[in-house]
Amino acid sequence: MRMNATANLARPSADKPRRLTGPEKAAILFLCLGEEHGSELMKRLDEFDIHAITRAISGLGTIPQAQVEEVINEFLSSASSGSTVVGSMEMAASMLRGFLPDGRVGEIMGEIQGPLLGRNIWDHFSSLDPQVIAGFIKGEHDQTVAAILTKVKPDTAAKVLPLLGQARMVEVTERMIAIDQVPRHALAQIEETLSQEFLTAASRSAAPDTQQRMADLFNKLDSNLFEEVSEELEKRVPEAFGAIKAKMFTFDDLMRLDLGSLAKVMRTVEGQTLPLALRGAKKEVRDYFLQALPQRSRDMLIEEMNAMGPVRGREVQNAQAQLIDGALELAEEEVIRLPMDDDDDVLIE
Known about the structure:
With 349 residues, this protein is an all-alpha fold. It has three domains: 22-116, no CATH class; 121-205, Annexin V, domain 1 (Orthogonal Bundle); 251-332, Flagellar motor switch protein FliG, alpha-alpha superhelical domain (Annexin V, domain 1, Orthogonal Bundle). It is 64% helix and 2% strand. The chain contains 20 helices and two strands. It has helices at residues 5-8, 22-42, 47-58, 65-75, 89-96, 102-116, 121-126, 130-137, 142-149, 154-160, 166-178, 184-202, 210-220, 223-236, 238-247, 259-266, 273-279, 283-291, 295-308, 313-332; strands spanning 61-63, 85-87. It has a two-stranded antiparallel ribbon. Helix 3 runs antiparallel to helix 5 and helix 13 (210-220) packs across helix 15 (238-247). The longest helix has 21 residues, at 22-42.
């Protein structure tokens, strides 16, 4: 599979006419008939066909004159107008309003609009095993891989990046930082490929800014890998990388919370999560956590950590990530306030 989004990120794909599906040919005919006659004809269809044709009209775009004539000759040889037709979401909705109530039109367009805008594709893709995703994108150009990883969930991207290898991980990460917005025509091609060639076989709203997405991704990345990547990115894109680091919130940053807020964060996790997270923490961080606990709870936690013995680094990382997530959720609910890099009230021991 090759999506060739490298060239497409700069310009639309070649002018070669694409192969039309049955619903797309029907959509062209409906557009040639116009809203009034098209709506009248659509009344005679069942709901399945209405959905198929509406979906085709919504995503049709501009069809060259030659293809329009070919389609018209297939259905109605006497109805060739010699012009192009343009399908759009607005045209599809307008045609449906000719025979359906506004509420039903809204329902159908909502169902059609979601997949067309990639709202479901990226959720499904992000839920796949990172090894599967890495195997799928490894043959793509770095720019295409970067475009894909800026669309998947940060925790998924953080697991996929290391699987690309050290050198390529740095290249792709640099491109991800530089991407402001993926051109719509390139993103559409990627989404179509994912839907047709991968998601089928393997089985909202405004996106956050690039810097925040990268900060979320780095928060999920293994700390050792992050240090390796940081060294290179500091040299290549120091200004952009510095801005991203300012948006990050790491496990060590938890000791910058006041003791009351830190105690609330610790209550967001259960079982062995807290002792496991602290078992692999720096001594100063661990000591500060212990200060936030009553004496009895402190003694019990120390006893649990001592009884654990050696622990796996990945387990420690996952436990610490749960505490970070707990802190972010409490901050979002305005239960606590996270310290920022420009805060003046830095804790002094």
